[in-house]
Each structure stands twice: as structure tokens, then as C-alpha cells.
Design goal:
The chain has 234 residues and is an alpha+beta fold. The chain has two domains: 54 residues; 168 residues, Cyclophilin-like (Cyclophilin). Helix content is 27%, strand content 22%. The chain has three helices and eleven strands; from the N terminus they run ββαββαββββββαβ. Strands 5-11-3-4-10-8-9-7-6 form a nine-stranded antiparallel β-sheet. Strands 1-2 form a two-stranded antiparallel sheet. Strand 1 and strand 2 form a beta hairpin. The N and C termini lie far apart (94 Å). The relative contact order is 0.18.
Length: 234
């Protein structure tokens, strides 16, 4: 019971302790409840991240999106045609960029400016258009860049296409290469976006890889990409 001290009511020490105990108990309950809420939010976040990751690796199928437009390309060269299957589900930004450049005629009359037998053949530099200035081959781009897009199940295997870039992983632009190493270029995996593969005309790619080159891997007699046609079917 309270008693008076100097005309003022003073709570007994025992009552005060009981109040403090009740406050402490309430605080503990609040902390536990809060902790439970935090764990729930965290688990939800982790679960959602897992789902997102699962969706982002849907490229494991290695197949084009069903019904997607422009999932094939025909690369016409001065030595023959190379037909390519593209992977918009695995590398959407890279494929979109490649399709756009192809449809606007960007690749018309460009040289396969870098040829390394048993490794890669590379093209896509506007500085090589019509032959151009050899000293500038390999230095040009479209003026736009695309980010690095890595799909864990797409590799730099024989016949696959990759996006060339500078030391900046997100500097892919217009230059691309075809792997001509029959055992694959495993050292390139995880560093360059793989966005398609040759489904017909690999003999043409190999023929290009065997043309005589100079000391800087440039073809002595230029081989050209005459055009690239985007198709909805092979």
C-alpha cells in the first residue's frame, strides 16, 4: 500500500519492483515478437532471392524462348553462309543488341579482322568496313555497350558465339567471335557473354580460320561479312 511522505504518496519498494518486472516482461515479449518478425522477413527475402536466382538461370535449357522472334541469324560471308541459333533467354540484352545491329545493316561489308586458327574468328568492327585502315581494325564499336551476361550452362565451346569486349566486363558493343577450337576455349568461360551457336556452315567458319594472316592476326586477303539476316526459323 502507498504511504505518505511529506504529504506526497510514495510507492512501496516492493510495488515498484513488481512494476519494473512487468515492464521488463513486456519488453522481452516485444523483443521476441520483433525477433520473430525479423526472422520471417529474412526467410521471405532469402526465399524470394532463391526464386529470382532460379528464374535467372532458366538459361540452363540452352534453347530459345518458344515463339520468340529473331532467334536465328544467317551470317553471309564472302566464303559462304553461317547459320546461327541465338539465345535471347540466356543473354537478352546481348541478343537484342546483335539483332538490332544486324537489322540496320551495321555488319554489312565488315572484315573478319581477327583470325586465329584453332582459337577464334572475330568481326564486327566498323573500322574495317570495305577494308578500311588496318591500323584501326579491332578498335571500333557501335557507340553503345551491353553488360556482361553469363549463363552457367553456355560455354565457349566449338562453334559458339561470344561477345568481344575490352578490359571492362560491361563494354561489349558490336564485335563478336566464333570459337573454332574443337576442344573449346575454356579459358574464356565466365569472362565473355556466350549468346549463340553455329547450327550450319561451321565448315565456312573453319575455312575463314585457315586463311593466311599477318603477324597481328589480320587476314592478308580480307574475308567479309556481306550481311547478317535475322530469321524466326533456320
Amino acid at each position: 500500500m502507498p504511504h505518505t511522505f511529506g504529504g506526497k504518496k510514495v510507492r512501496e519498494p516492493g510495488a515498484r519492483r513488481r512494476k519494473m518486472t512487468r515492464i521488463a516482461a513486456a519488453a522481452i515479449v516485444a523483443i521476441i515478437a520483433g525477433a520473430g518478425l525479423y526472422i520471417y522477413i529474412s526467410n521471405t527475402y532469402i526465399s524470394n532471392q532463391g526464386t529470382t536466382t532460379q528464374e535467372s538461370t532458366s538459361c540452363t535449357t540452352g534453347t530459345p524462348v518458344l515463339g520468340a522472334k529473331g532467334t536465328y541469324a544467317k551470317i553471309n560471308t564472302s566464303l559462304g553462309s553461317i547459320e546461327v541459333q541465338l539465345y535471347p533467354s540466356a543473354a537478352p540484352k546481348t541478343v537484342a543488341n546483335f539483332v538490332n545491329l544486324s537489322q540496320t545493316g551495321f555488319y554489312n561489308n565488315l572484315v573478319w579482322h581477327r583470325i586465329v586458327a584453332g582459337f577464334v574468328i572475330q568481326t564486327g568492327d566498323p573500322n574495317s568496313r570495305g577494308g578500311g585502315n588496318r591500323s584501326q581494325w579491332g578498335l571500333g564499336g557501335s557507340g553503345k555497350t551491353v553488360p556482361l551476361e553469363i549463363c552457367s550452362t553456355l560455354h565457349n565451346d566449338y562453334g559458339y558465339l561470344g561477345m568481344a569486349r575490352s578490359s571492362d566486363p560491361n563494354s561489349g558493343s558490336s564485335q563478336f567471335y566464333i570459337n573454332v577450337n574443337q576442344t573449346g576455349n575454356t579459358n574464356l568461360n565466365g569472362q565473355y557473354t556466350v549468346f549463340g551457336k553455329v547450327i550450319s556452315g561451321m565448315d565456312v567458319a573453319i575455312a575463314i580460320s585457315k586463311v593466311p594472316v599477318n603477324s597481328t592476326d589480320q587476314p592478308i586477303t580480307p574475308v567479309f561479312v556481306t550481311s547478317i539476316k535475322i530469321q524466326d526459323a533456320p
